[in-house]
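Hi everyone,

Forwarding the result from last night's run.
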Amino acid sequence: MTAPSKFRVCESCRSLKASQPFLEIVPFSFLLNNAVDNPSVPIRTKPRLSAGWYEDNWFEVNLEEEDIECSVDEMKEAAEGHLTTEALMWNQNLNERTISGMTSEDFRLRLNQVLRKEGYKIDNQRFPEGYQEAPLAYDAVWSVALAFNKTMDRLHKYGKSLKEFNYNNKEIADDIYSAINSTQFLGISGYVAFSSQGDRIALTQIEQIINGNYVVLGYYDTQADNLTWFDREVWHGKPWELEKLGSLIRGRGARPQTSQN
């Protein structure tokens, strides 16, 4: 996460508290920059939904290096209560064997071992940028390998080879695209499949910072059009209705299904 440079209006951090029953979708850096430009205007008068690809402790680390003049406590206060959404990046069944033979926990332990050797202080919860996305990169390699194998088998039936491919060969390119599109397997990041547009299909995880920590509020399944909700959210002021949140996530007003957990 790259924070805005020279953020110096820390008093405005104290106004970052959700209170209104509607949502504004902005990058968190925008909130801080807005405080610099408009120090007299409260910059969080409604719940904020921010991108969820940052590391879990992004608002606590590297403040001095990035010229952030707020203290850690002030940054925590600024971040408190905001929502994030992101694709689920780790298989939630830690002991489930994937196509590679590893479980997601096996992968995490191997990754952490490599990072320690490279000098990263991960035992102090200091993870490098991109750590959370590591399973996606690993599964992407498997996706390509499986698609190439499938393409090679198809081309062999017609006396052709994948070695004949170049960027002007639309026939083989279409075969590769079709193979990737039909590839499905259980990976480190969970169940891997692709939409007809070539996008990765994955559960969307919804989180909120509560008492300084990210708490999973629920998951949204785009394929099943189903929202699983755990009733863990904490709102400051007037509470939201779950139906409204489901409507915002799915773009329409169908009532989401809730979890009893």
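The helical segments are 28-37, 72-79, 104-117, 134-157, 170-181, 242-250.

Cheers,
N.
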